[in-house]
Amino acid sequence: MGRVAGKVALITGGARGQGAAHARRLSEEGAKVVISDIRDQEGHALAAALDAEYLTHDVGSDSSWRETMETVRARYGRLDVLVNNAGIAIMAGLAETDAALFERTVRVNQLGVFLGIKYGAELMKATRGGSIINISSITALKSEPRYIAYTSTKWAVRGLTRAAALELAPLGIRVNTIFPGIIDTPMLTDSVPGLDVAQFGAANTPLGRVGVPDDVASAIVFLASDESSFITGAELAVDGGVCA
Predict the structure, then answer these.
(1) Where are the alpha helices (DSSP H) in the chain?
(2) Which major enzyme category is it (predicted)?
(3) Beta strands in 14-159 (DSSP E)
């Protein structure tokens, strides 16, 4: 029996990178995994490999969230774990960030998490329990000026998590935040072209190496499982000591 055996878990932005690692680990630990993303080809391939399900899902769209949750309800009748992982990171300072870029980042990183909490909690109420895990960033603990929009939204995720944790606690729904550090993912290399991620991570992380997606996935499994049943509103940095 796995640590999350029998639980139904939805991972947004689960087609690649950290999200794919979360999907793999939760599947290995016995969960029925639903992967959602806009990267259909990668998402379908991963779902087939894991015997999971893939849904096309725009996290910044209210109607897309409602459709996704209705599909989960119809096929599984419940939702036990929601990982709000989908996000974008575009390197741009204050002068380079226009309203369109800021609004796009807010729609995915902030509105997407809000909608996930809102609709995820509605489905979790049916079983009076569940775990919502929001992926923030160390930029919400140690701000990065070259990512004005990204940093702003990741700080907002902290507030969303705490407020939702208090509101949903009487229903047995836990809401926690993970703050990944320097993790070797496509999002990082896409954001900073030409970056030697391994060298950069080793040089800037007290533990002396870059993080890998499975480092974060281990924390996901813990917060998704009953092992963390008395933890809500918490903030967990998975950063190799960067914010220490």
Answers:
(1) 17-28, 40-50, 62-76, 99-105, 112-124, 148-168, 186-191, 197-204, 213-224
(2) oxidoreductase
(3) 32-37, 53-56, 81-84, 130-135
Proportion of the chain above pLDDT 90, given as a percent: 89
Structure tokens at 12: 């947004």
Nearest alpha-carbon partner for 13 in 49, 55, 66? 55
Owner of token pair 């690649």: 16
Q: What is the pLDDT of residues 89-110, one digit of tens each?
A: 999 999 999 999 999 999 999 9
pLDDT tens, 156-170? 999 999 999 999 999
* Of 140, 148, 149, residue with least CA distance to 238: 140
Polymer length of the chain: 244
Q: Please check whether residue 91 is in contact with residue 139, taking contact to mean a CB–CB distance below 8 angstroms.
A: no
CA angle 215, 198, 187 (to 5 degrees): 65
Burial of 23 by CB count in 10 Å (0-12 exposed, 13-18 middle, 19+ buried)?
buried
Q: How far apart are CA 123 and CA 70, in angstroms?
A: 9
Token output for 35:
């992967």
- Residue corresponding to tokens 């960030």: 97
Q: Terminal CA-to-CA distance of the chain, rounded, Å?
A: 36
* CB-CB contact of 78 with 7 (8 Å): no
